[in-house]
Request: fold
Amino acid sequence: MEPFWEAPWGEQPRFNAKPWPCEPEEAQRYLNVPLLWPVARGIPEGMSLGALTVRPEGEKAWSSAHLTLSGGGRRLRLKQFHFDWWRPSEITVGLQRTLGFYRAGDTVVAWGRDQRGRSAAGMAWGRSTVLLRIERGTFAEIELRQLLASLEPAVPTALPVLAVPAFHELSYHIRRGHGPRQLDEIAAADWTEEVRTIRAASPTPLLLPEPIPPGWRFDGGALWPAPPPLETQWLLRDEQGSTVLYARARPTQDPQPLKLPPHYQPTEGWRVRQSLLRRRRMTLAHQHPDLGGWSAAWAEGGYRYQLFVRAGALSGEKAFTRLIEGLKAASK
Reply:
Protein backbone atom coordinates (compact mmCIF):
# COMPACT_ATOMS: atom_id res chain seq x y z
CA MET A 1 0.00 0.00 0.00
CA GLU A 2 1.01 3.61 -0.51
CA PRO A 3 1.38 5.98 2.49
CA PHE A 4 -1.50 8.25 1.45
CA TRP A 5 -1.29 10.14 4.77
CA GLU A 6 1.91 11.77 3.47
CA ALA A 7 0.04 13.47 0.61
CA PRO A 8 -1.06 17.12 0.95
CA TRP A 9 -4.46 17.52 2.56
CA GLY A 10 -7.25 16.80 0.07
CA GLU A 11 -5.05 14.79 -2.29
CA GLN A 12 -5.65 11.42 -0.64
CA PRO A 13 -6.95 8.77 -3.08
CA ARG A 14 -10.69 9.01 -3.80
CA PHE A 15 -10.97 11.90 -1.35
CA ASN A 16 -14.62 12.56 -0.41
CA ALA A 17 -15.85 9.42 -2.21
CA LYS A 18 -18.88 7.61 -0.81
CA PRO A 19 -18.40 4.12 0.72
CA TRP A 20 -18.36 1.19 -1.72
CA PRO A 21 -18.14 -2.62 -1.45
CA CYS A 22 -14.76 -4.16 -2.19
CA GLU A 23 -12.29 -6.91 -1.35
CA PRO A 24 -9.95 -6.62 1.68
CA GLU A 25 -6.87 -5.87 -0.45
CA GLU A 26 -8.60 -2.88 -2.04
CA ALA A 27 -10.04 -1.63 1.25
CA GLN A 28 -6.63 -1.65 2.93
CA ARG A 29 -5.31 0.89 0.41
CA TYR A 30 -7.65 3.54 1.85
CA LEU A 31 -7.20 2.80 5.56
CA ASN A 32 -4.58 4.25 7.91
CA VAL A 33 -4.95 1.20 10.19
CA PRO A 34 -4.60 -2.55 9.62
CA LEU A 35 -7.82 -4.07 8.31
CA LEU A 36 -8.69 -6.99 10.60
CA TRP A 37 -10.44 -10.11 9.35
CA PRO A 38 -12.05 -13.03 11.23
CA VAL A 39 -10.72 -16.50 10.55
CA ALA A 40 -13.25 -19.23 9.80
CA ARG A 41 -13.05 -20.88 13.24
CA GLY A 42 -14.07 -17.61 14.92
CA ILE A 43 -17.26 -17.03 12.95
CA PRO A 44 -20.38 -17.93 14.98
CA GLU A 45 -22.12 -21.12 13.88
CA GLY A 46 -24.69 -20.62 11.14
CA MET A 47 -23.27 -17.26 10.08
CA SER A 48 -21.15 -16.19 7.12
CA LEU A 49 -19.25 -13.14 6.02
CA GLY A 50 -21.27 -10.52 4.16
CA ALA A 51 -20.31 -7.32 2.44
CA LEU A 52 -17.16 -5.36 3.23
CA THR A 53 -17.39 -1.63 2.51
CA VAL A 54 -14.69 1.03 2.82
CA ARG A 55 -15.01 4.77 3.26
CA PRO A 56 -11.91 6.78 2.26
CA GLU A 57 -10.86 10.03 3.86
CA GLY A 58 -12.80 13.15 2.98
CA GLU A 59 -13.24 16.72 4.05
CA LYS A 60 -15.44 15.70 6.99
CA ALA A 61 -14.96 11.91 7.22
CA TRP A 62 -12.10 9.76 8.44
CA SER A 63 -11.46 6.43 6.73
CA SER A 64 -13.26 3.35 8.03
CA ALA A 65 -14.26 -0.16 7.04
CA HIS A 66 -17.51 -2.01 7.76
CA LEU A 67 -17.97 -5.78 7.63
CA THR A 68 -21.25 -7.60 8.18
CA LEU A 69 -21.82 -11.19 9.30
CA SER A 70 -25.26 -12.75 9.08
CA GLY A 71 -27.15 -16.04 9.08
CA GLY A 72 -29.77 -17.94 11.04
CA GLY A 73 -31.75 -14.79 11.74
CA ARG A 74 -28.76 -13.08 13.36
CA ARG A 75 -26.61 -10.18 12.20
CA LEU A 76 -23.35 -8.55 13.39
CA ARG A 77 -21.51 -5.48 12.17
CA LEU A 78 -17.78 -4.78 12.61
CA LYS A 79 -16.57 -1.21 12.19
CA GLN A 80 -12.83 -0.43 12.06
CA PHE A 81 -11.09 2.95 12.19
CA HIS A 82 -8.28 4.98 13.80
CA PHE A 83 -9.42 6.47 17.11
CA ASP A 84 -7.46 9.72 17.26
CA TRP A 85 -9.66 12.50 18.63
CA TRP A 86 -9.90 11.78 22.38
CA ARG A 87 -7.74 9.75 24.80
CA PRO A 88 -6.22 7.37 22.22
CA SER A 89 -5.63 4.74 24.92
CA GLU A 90 -9.40 4.28 25.40
CA ILE A 91 -11.22 1.17 24.11
CA THR A 92 -14.76 2.11 25.18
CA VAL A 93 -15.24 4.49 22.25
CA GLY A 94 -18.66 3.84 20.68
CA LEU A 95 -20.15 2.58 23.93
CA GLN A 96 -22.73 4.85 25.51
CA ARG A 97 -22.66 2.66 28.62
CA THR A 98 -19.83 0.29 29.49
CA LEU A 99 -20.98 -2.80 31.40
CA GLY A 100 -17.82 -4.87 31.67
CA PHE A 101 -14.53 -6.13 30.26
CA TYR A 102 -13.28 -9.54 29.24
CA ARG A 103 -10.27 -11.06 27.54
CA ALA A 104 -10.50 -12.32 23.96
CA GLY A 105 -7.29 -14.04 22.98
CA ASP A 106 -4.44 -11.60 23.52
CA THR A 107 -6.61 -8.49 23.69
CA VAL A 108 -9.12 -6.99 26.12
CA VAL A 109 -12.66 -6.16 25.08
CA ALA A 110 -15.06 -3.62 26.58
CA TRP A 111 -18.75 -4.48 26.21
CA GLY A 112 -21.94 -2.54 26.84
CA ARG A 113 -24.59 -0.57 24.96
CA ASP A 114 -24.25 1.88 22.08
CA GLN A 115 -26.17 5.15 21.68
CA ARG A 116 -29.27 3.29 20.50
CA GLY A 117 -29.19 0.81 23.35
CA ARG A 118 -27.90 -2.08 21.23
CA SER A 119 -25.36 -4.57 22.55
CA ALA A 120 -21.86 -3.62 21.41
CA ALA A 121 -18.20 -4.27 22.18
CA GLY A 122 -14.95 -2.44 21.48
CA MET A 123 -11.29 -3.41 21.32
CA ALA A 124 -7.97 -2.27 19.87
CA TRP A 125 -5.40 -4.15 17.84
CA GLY A 126 -2.44 -2.21 16.56
CA ARG A 127 -3.64 1.13 15.23
CA SER A 128 -7.14 -0.27 14.65
CA THR A 129 -10.10 0.31 16.91
CA VAL A 130 -12.83 -2.28 16.36
CA LEU A 131 -16.47 -1.67 17.28
CA LEU A 132 -18.73 -4.73 17.13
CA ARG A 133 -22.48 -4.19 17.17
CA ILE A 134 -25.28 -6.76 17.43
CA GLU A 135 -27.90 -5.71 14.89
CA ARG A 136 -30.21 -8.71 15.10
CA GLY A 137 -30.57 -11.80 17.26
CA THR A 138 -28.84 -12.89 20.45
CA PHE A 139 -25.34 -14.24 21.03
CA ALA A 140 -23.57 -16.10 23.80
CA GLU A 141 -20.57 -14.25 25.18
CA ILE A 142 -18.26 -17.07 24.08
CA GLU A 143 -19.32 -16.55 20.46
CA LEU A 144 -18.33 -12.89 20.53
CA ARG A 145 -15.09 -13.67 22.37
CA GLN A 146 -14.11 -16.23 19.76
CA LEU A 147 -14.97 -13.89 16.91
CA LEU A 148 -12.95 -10.98 18.27
CA ALA A 149 -10.05 -13.22 19.30
CA SER A 150 -9.87 -14.58 15.75
CA LEU A 151 -9.34 -11.19 14.10
CA GLU A 152 -6.04 -10.91 12.28
CA PRO A 153 -4.58 -8.59 9.62
CA ALA A 154 -6.27 -9.17 6.27
CA VAL A 155 -3.29 -7.77 4.36
CA PRO A 156 -0.11 -8.59 6.34
CA THR A 157 2.09 -6.87 3.76
CA ALA A 158 0.59 -3.53 4.84
CA LEU A 159 1.82 -3.87 8.42
CA PRO A 160 5.41 -2.65 7.83
CA VAL A 161 4.08 0.47 6.07
CA LEU A 162 1.66 1.24 8.89
CA ALA A 163 4.19 0.52 11.64
CA VAL A 164 6.66 3.26 10.70
CA PRO A 165 4.70 6.54 11.15
CA ALA A 166 4.13 8.11 14.55
CA PHE A 167 0.58 8.49 15.80
CA HIS A 168 0.21 12.09 14.62
CA GLU A 169 1.53 11.31 11.16
CA LEU A 170 -1.23 8.75 10.58
CA SER A 171 -3.95 10.68 12.39
CA TYR A 172 -6.70 12.03 10.14
CA HIS A 173 -7.81 14.68 12.64
CA ILE A 174 -4.31 15.95 13.42
CA ARG A 175 -3.57 16.27 9.70
CA ARG A 176 -6.92 18.00 9.29
CA GLY A 177 -6.20 20.38 12.17
CA HIS A 178 -9.32 19.90 14.28
CA GLY A 179 -11.42 17.10 15.71
CA PRO A 180 -15.09 16.16 15.51
CA ARG A 181 -17.65 17.95 17.67
CA GLN A 182 -15.05 20.56 18.72
CA LEU A 183 -12.86 17.95 20.40
CA ASP A 184 -9.64 19.72 19.46
CA GLU A 185 -7.31 19.00 22.39
CA ILE A 186 -5.39 16.37 20.43
CA ALA A 187 -6.12 17.38 16.84
CA ALA A 188 -5.19 21.06 17.12
CA ALA A 189 -1.98 20.57 19.14
CA ASP A 190 1.53 20.82 17.66
CA TRP A 191 2.95 17.28 17.55
CA THR A 192 6.47 15.89 17.20
CA GLU A 193 7.93 12.40 17.48
CA GLU A 194 11.22 13.60 19.00
CA VAL A 195 11.50 13.27 22.78
CA ARG A 196 14.30 15.84 22.83
CA THR A 197 12.23 18.41 20.94
CA ILE A 198 9.14 18.15 23.13
CA ARG A 199 11.20 18.01 26.34
CA ALA A 200 13.06 21.20 25.44
CA ALA A 201 9.86 23.12 24.63
CA SER A 202 7.53 21.70 27.29
CA PRO A 203 6.49 23.91 30.21
CA THR A 204 6.25 20.74 32.34
CA PRO A 205 8.61 17.78 32.85
CA LEU A 206 7.95 14.90 30.47
CA LEU A 207 7.48 11.92 32.79
CA LEU A 208 8.27 8.51 31.29
CA PRO A 209 8.36 5.04 32.87
CA GLU A 210 11.77 3.82 33.96
CA PRO A 211 12.26 1.23 32.80
CA ILE A 212 9.90 1.48 29.85
CA PRO A 213 7.94 -1.81 29.66
CA PRO A 214 9.22 -4.26 27.03
CA GLY A 215 7.94 -3.45 23.55
CA TRP A 216 6.77 0.07 24.46
CA ARG A 217 8.25 3.21 22.93
CA PHE A 218 7.61 6.93 22.63
CA ASP A 219 5.05 7.72 19.93
CA GLY A 220 4.86 11.51 19.99
CA GLY A 221 4.35 14.56 22.15
CA ALA A 222 2.49 17.82 21.67
CA LEU A 223 2.11 21.37 22.96
CA TRP A 224 -1.04 23.44 22.90
CA PRO A 225 -0.29 26.03 20.19
CA ALA A 226 -1.90 29.12 21.73
CA PRO A 227 -1.82 29.08 25.53
CA PRO A 228 -3.53 29.17 27.88
CA PRO A 229 -3.42 26.39 28.74
CA LEU A 230 0.29 25.55 28.82
CA GLU A 231 -0.41 21.88 28.18
CA THR A 232 1.88 19.05 27.15
CA GLN A 233 0.61 15.68 25.93
CA TRP A 234 2.55 12.54 25.10
CA LEU A 235 1.97 8.95 23.97
CA LEU A 236 3.63 5.56 24.22
CA ARG A 237 2.83 2.69 21.85
CA ASP A 238 3.39 -1.06 21.86
CA GLU A 239 5.00 -3.21 19.19
CA GLN A 240 1.77 -3.46 17.18
CA GLY A 241 1.19 0.29 17.27
CA SER A 242 -1.57 0.47 19.89
CA THR A 243 -1.48 3.54 22.11
CA VAL A 244 -0.77 2.04 25.53
CA LEU A 245 -0.19 5.27 27.47
CA TYR A 246 -1.62 8.76 27.10
CA ALA A 247 -0.55 11.56 29.46
CA ARG A 248 -1.17 15.27 29.83
CA ALA A 249 0.28 17.90 32.15
CA ARG A 250 -0.05 21.61 32.96
CA PRO A 251 1.64 23.91 35.48
CA THR A 252 -0.30 24.21 38.73
CA GLN A 253 -0.36 28.01 38.31
CA ASP A 254 -1.69 27.82 34.74
CA PRO A 255 -4.80 29.98 34.17
CA GLN A 256 -6.54 26.71 33.24
CA PRO A 257 -4.91 24.06 35.45
CA LEU A 258 -5.92 20.43 35.28
CA LYS A 259 -8.76 19.80 37.70
CA LEU A 260 -7.83 17.71 40.74
CA PRO A 261 -9.42 15.39 41.51
CA PRO A 262 -10.53 14.86 37.92
CA HIS A 263 -13.93 13.61 36.86
CA TYR A 264 -14.08 10.05 35.54
CA GLN A 265 -17.18 8.94 33.66
CA PRO A 266 -18.90 5.98 35.38
CA THR A 267 -20.47 5.18 31.99
CA GLU A 268 -16.94 4.32 30.77
CA GLY A 269 -16.57 1.85 33.62
CA TRP A 270 -14.29 3.96 35.85
CA ARG A 271 -14.06 3.31 39.58
CA VAL A 272 -12.12 5.88 41.61
CA ARG A 273 -10.20 5.87 44.89
CA GLN A 274 -7.52 7.92 46.64
CA SER A 275 -4.08 6.44 47.24
CA LEU A 276 -0.57 7.36 48.34
CA LEU A 277 2.09 6.99 45.64
CA ARG A 278 5.27 8.93 44.86
CA ARG A 279 5.08 10.23 48.48
CA ARG A 280 1.92 12.16 47.74
CA ARG A 281 -1.82 11.62 47.60
CA MET A 282 -3.21 10.96 44.16
CA THR A 283 -6.41 9.86 42.47
CA LEU A 284 -6.33 6.35 41.03
CA ALA A 285 -9.00 4.92 38.76
CA HIS A 286 -9.56 1.62 36.99
CA GLN A 287 -12.15 0.20 34.62
CA HIS A 288 -11.48 -3.40 35.67
CA PRO A 289 -9.29 -4.32 38.69
CA ASP A 290 -7.28 -6.89 36.74
CA LEU A 291 -7.68 -6.04 33.07
CA GLY A 292 -7.63 -2.21 33.30
CA GLY A 293 -7.64 0.42 31.94
CA TRP A 294 -5.95 2.49 34.59
CA SER A 295 -5.52 6.18 35.32
CA ALA A 296 -3.75 8.39 37.84
CA ALA A 297 -3.94 12.12 38.51
CA TRP A 298 -1.78 14.13 40.90
CA ALA A 299 0.21 17.30 41.59
CA GLU A 300 3.99 17.22 41.86
CA GLY A 301 6.73 19.85 41.81
CA GLY A 302 4.46 22.68 40.73
CA TYR A 303 2.76 20.70 37.95
CA ARG A 304 -0.40 18.66 37.56
CA TYR A 305 -0.50 15.34 35.69
CA GLN A 306 -3.12 12.93 34.40
CA LEU A 307 -2.09 9.62 32.86
CA PHE A 308 -4.07 6.79 31.25
CA VAL A 309 -2.99 3.22 30.38
CA ARG A 310 -5.00 1.12 27.96
CA ALA A 311 -6.92 -1.92 29.21
CA GLY A 312 -4.83 -5.07 28.79
CA ALA A 313 -1.54 -3.19 28.39
CA LEU A 314 -0.28 -4.24 31.83
CA SER A 315 -0.61 -7.41 33.87
CA GLY A 316 -2.68 -5.81 36.65
CA GLU A 317 -2.99 -2.95 39.10
CA LYS A 318 0.30 -3.72 40.84
CA ALA A 319 2.09 -3.33 37.52
CA PHE A 320 0.33 0.00 37.05
CA THR A 321 1.32 1.35 40.46
CA ARG A 322 4.94 0.25 39.82
CA LEU A 323 4.82 2.17 36.55
CA ILE A 324 3.57 5.31 38.34
CA GLU A 325 6.23 4.99 41.05
CA GLY A 326 8.93 4.60 38.39
CA LEU A 327 8.05 7.70 36.35
CA LYS A 328 11.02 10.00 35.80
CA ALA A 329 11.57 13.18 33.82
CA ALA A 330 12.90 12.47 30.33
CA SER A 331 16.53 13.46 30.05
CA LYS A 332 17.06 13.03 26.31
